[in-house]
Records
---
Amino acid sequence: GTAGATLDAYLIITDQESGKRIVFKALGISFGPTGLQGPSTLALGSNVEIRLNNAAMIILNANGTFVSWDCEGFASMAIDADIEFCRNFIVPLNPSTLEPKPEPERYRLNVVTTIPSWLEFYVTVNAEPFAVAGYETIKWSLTNMLVDFSSTETPAFTPLSGYASPFYDGQAMSGQWKGFYVQNISVKFPTSFSNSGTTITASANDVMIDDCGFSGAVGVQTEILCIDDGN
C-alpha cells in the first residue's frame, strides 16, 4: 500500500466594505484517486472583527464559522457571529434588573446561519433589553430583531412615516438596504416622567437602526400628567 498524498487548502475572502482579508484554511488533507479523504471545510484560525458602519461591527467566531468546499471550489459558508454595537449608540441592560451593564460590555446579537456568499444574509434573532446612549433611564425591551446584511434582498416592512433614505422610495424598502428593524418594542420610562410617581410603560413600532441613525415611533399608554394639573 501507499501512504497517499496530502494537501493544504486556503481560501482568502476580501470584505469589500472594509478591505479586510479573511483567511480560511485546512492543513494536511488526505486525497486520492476518488477525491478528498479528509474534512471538506476550511476554518478560521481565530475570531475576526469587521466594521459594518459607525455604529456596529460583526465578530466572526472561529469555532462556528467555516467554509464548505468541493471540487468546484466554494460551496457555502456557515456563520456563527456576534454583532456588537458601539456603546456610544447602544447600552446593554441586565435582563433581570434592566440596569446598564458595566463597561466595557457592549450590546451584542448572536447570529448562526448558513449563507451562499460572503455576508449575504438576513435573519431574525432574539435580542436582550437595551438603552440608547445618553438616555439610560429609558429601557427598551424586545423579542425579535431583523438583521439585514443582504445587498439584494430585504424582507417586506413599512418604516416609520417620514423616514428618508436612498433605499426607500416611499412605497417599499430596496433590497440594498442594510440595518436592524423591530416592528414592536416596549419601553419603560423613569418615574420622573409620571405625575403619580409610577413607572410608565409605552410601546414603540417600526424601530430602525441603520446608516440614518436610530428612528422609531413611541406611544404612551399611561397617563403622564392629569389635565387638571397642567399649566
---
Amino acid sequence: MNIFTYDQFTFPLPEGHRFPAEKYRLLREAVEMAQVVPPEKLIVPTPATDNQLRRAHSEEYLDKVANGRLSPEEIRRIGLPWSPELVVRCQHSVGATIAACRTALQNGRSATLGGGTHHACWDEGQGFCVYNDTVAAARAMQAEGRARRVLVVDCDVHQGNGTAQITQGDETIFTFSIHGEKNFPFRKIPSDLDVGLPDDTGDADYLAALESALHTAVARARANLVIYLAGADVHEQDRLGRLCLTKAGIAERDRLVLGVCRAAGLPVAVTMAGGYGRSLPETIAIQLQTIQITAQFR
C-alpha cells in the first residue's frame, strides 16, 4: 500500500494558532517508526494542477488564492493566514488525495496523511479548508477514465458542507456524511445522505447508525471508488468534536467502513480529515491506528 505525505511543505502560523500543523509531521514520523509500509511506499506527491483544481473551484476563487487577493473576511472564514507557502501546501494536499485514489484503484487501498478538506466550497474556503481535495480527486479519476462513479464516506465529526455544495446535481458523486448534528458548520448543505448525531454519542450508537447508513450509501452510489474521510475528531477527548467515541470505537469504525467496501468490491482511498485532540499524541495515535488498520486489512 502506498501512503502519501506532504508535511515538509510548511507555512507560517501565528504563535498559539489552533490549527495543529505539527500533527502532520508527527504522524509521518509515527508511520515511519511503526514501519507501516517500506520507506519507498511513503511518497511525496506531485501538486495538483490548475486544471485539476478547476474541477472543484471557480476560476475567480482560484485566482484569489493563488495571488493573495482574498479579502480579510474570506481569510477569516478559512481560519488560516494567506501565504505563498500555504498555497503550495494545499496544492500538495490535493495532489496527495489524487495520487491515493489512483493507487487505490490499482491496488485496492491507499492513504494520505492529510486531506479531507471538506468545508471548501466552489467559491470560498472555510474551516481550515482552502481546496476541496475530495471533489478534485473524484473528478480527476473520472476525467482520467479510472472511475465513473465515486462514493464519499465522510466520517469527520463535522458535516461535509463544501463537498455537498460543489457536487449538487452531480449524480456521479454520491456524498454520505455522518457527523455531530449541532457542530460546525451551523448551516449545513444537504449531502445525498446525511446522518446527524446528538452530542455525546458513544461507540455503540455511532457504529449502529454508521452500519445502517453505509449499506444504504453503497447501494445507492453504485460506485467504482470510495474516498473515506477518517476523521479522528469523533474521539471523546477532541476539542472540537462533541461526540464520545473511544479509540477502540474508532478502530471498529475503520474496520466497518473497510469491510463493507471490501464486500462490495470497492477500492478505498483514505484521508485523515480532522483531529484536534486535547492531547496531540492521542490524536496521532488514533490516526496512526487508522493507517495501520488500512494497511493490514485483508
---
Amino acid sequence: LIEIGAQVNFWRAPNDNDYGASLQKKYGEWKTTGKQEPTKVAVREVSKTKIVISSIKELFGGDAVFEQIFTIYGDGTIHISNNLKAIKGSHSNLFKFGNEWILPKEFKRVEWYGKGPYESYADRQHAAKVGLYSSPISEQYFPYIRPQENGNRAGVRWMKISRNDGVSLKILGTKHLNISALNFTNEDLDSGSSKGQKHAGELTPRDEVFLNIDGFQQGLGSINSWGAMPLEKYILPYKSYNYEYWIVPEND
C-alpha cells in the first residue's frame, strides 16, 4: 500500500509571493536538509504485535536533531512521531515541517474532514469551511498559470485515500494537519532558484500519488507578490517543533 515514506521535509515549491520576497534563496538551507541517511536507528520488539523503530538525523552539523519514531502494530496501523529539536545556531525560517510519502497509482480518491472543498492555508482559509469532502486525486491540483505550491487542505482532522477496490489508508492527527495528495512531486512544481516561466498546462501528471502530511506550514503571504512576508503569526522560525499522526489501513 505504501511505496516510500515518511521522509522528513522542510520545503515546499515556492509560490509567486515567496519568489517576490526571495524566500527560495533565504530559506535555501532547508531544501535538502533531512534527506541524508539516519545517524542512528534502533528497532525494539515490544510484543508480538507491536514494534517500535526510531531514527535520528543530525542537521546542520549538530545544530539541530530530527528524531522520528514509528510504532507499528500487527493490524498494519502505524503511528508516526516527528520531533525537531533546535539545539544551537542561527538558521532561517522554515517553509514547513512535514513528511513526504509516495503511494501506488491505484489510489484514486480522497475523502477528508477538515477545511474545504478547495485548497486552504494558514493565511488563506476563511472561505474554506470545516466539513466532510471528497474528490478524485486528479482534481486536487489547481492549475495556476505557473506551477507552484498548491493543493493543501488545512485543518484536517482525518483524510482517507482510497483505491477503487475499497482498500484505503486513513490518516488521523492528534492535532489538525495540513495534507496534500497530488500526482505531481514537489520538484515538478518547483521552479528552482529563479522564478521560471513554465506553464501548468505543460506538466504531465505522474501515476503515483505524492502525499504530504505536514504538522506546520508557513502562510502563503497573500499581501503582495513583490517582497512582503506573511504576517508574523504565520511564519515558522527556527525552533523546536513536534507533531504526530496515525495511518490506518482499511477495507470497505
